[in-house]
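quick one: zinc ion bound model?
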Amino acid sequence: MNKKYKDRNWLYENYVEKEIKILELAKDCGTTTDTIYHWLDKYQIPRRTKKAIDVKCLNCDKVFKKTYAEIRKGNLNHYCSQKCCKEL
Ligand SMILES: [Zn+2]
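yep, here:
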């Protein structure tokens, strides 16, 4: 089994810079996606997520996308921009 996923530089280079999917990395290393996630977390490498939801700005009614990553960060304000947030 190839343990290169334990190398932070390798993870960062492939996952963040080359944007290779977790599943591909896991296959490449002969391990599971759970293991790759475990090491990403361990090295505090932020996970990519393309999942986004439509949110309507409470100030200008503009509909915009918010990713789960942003929402998880506690960024729950439903405003399209800092400017709208401050206007209320
Ligand atoms: Zn707005």
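DSSP finds five helices and two strands in the chain.
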